[in-house]
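=== RUN LOG ===
request id: a7f3
mode: sequence -> structure
chains: 1
length: 366
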Amino acid sequence: MGNITDNAMNENLNDKKIAVLLSGGVDSSVVVYELASMGLHPDCFYIKIGPEEDAEWDCSSEEDMEMATAVAARFGCRLQVIDCHKEYWDKVTSYTMEKVKAGFTPNPDVMCNRLIKFGAFNEKAGHDYDLIATGHYAQTETDEQGLKWLTTSPDPVKDQTDFLAQIYDWQLRKALFPIGHYMKDEVRRIAEREHLVNAKRKDSQGICFLGKINYNEYIRRYLGENPGDVLELETGKKIGTHRGLWFHTIGQRHGLGFGGGPWYAVRKDVEANILYVSHGFEPRTAYRDVFGIRDFHFLTVPVEMQRVTFKIRHTPEYHPALLEKTGEGEYVVHAEEMIQGVAPGQFCVVYDEHHHRCFGSGEIAV
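=== RESULT ===
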């Protein structure tokens, strides 16, 4: 089957009405440059999601807004602020807190793309546009049947298809990723060559939209602390105490803070409020080659998935596996190698055998 790559450089966009989600970072700024260099003048939108008490949370949104304003003005584009504060805190935060309270490891950024960038924004303004362009490192292609597929970026470190693997099919059809065919250093060079105001600005490291807010602070704000025992898995010996199971993820090493390490978080007992840790990097319990996924979400259309590749966290590696379908939206992953840190609530993102097309993702259920 022949494929047509849909990046902005070879898709006819002249008759399309395009909205750009402009964050103030270098990636979305280069998106505006790329479209402007094609003679286009997209409308730019800054999505405002501020914490409820800005000063207390040390939010960087003011600087982001200044950068976005400067970039939009540089290319003669209109900039509008869209307030999605309530939608974010109502939808994304409630999803996150519900999962962590149950002992799971959710990914707020995944839900942010579905519910906010391509969701609430579309309801408020995006519905007036044919395409919504973002600075994601991802690509799309359209097959001979006219179906649009999400495909990976050539930059394995920056590829963000895993963060997009829960968006709806109609959202994917409207999505445009003008820098998805670049490596990150190429984007940075373009920004420096064009003297963009944020060319040397560091990439954000926190949760989507939350600027400098630390993930644990985000959780503490809503769930507080719930101290409990930390036990060595093999012996049952008490190693120390934790401040709340929701501050720890399976496979975690850094930040545990116990002497005599290294220690690795390997299991949570939510009912007893116990965190189990192990000394070795390779306790059998910390690794799995077989695990279930549920509520699988297909990005484009349901496809037969057998020999695939997958990832369970934002890393450059793709793991080969066989998928066994066990029910509606339910699969068992048979990985070819032992995978460290498989945790309930994480998304398992599934790709074709060559990790080119992203089929979608499901929640790990072990």
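=== NOTES ===
The CA atoms of residues 157 and 316 lie 5 Å apart.
The mean pLDDT is 88.
=== END ===
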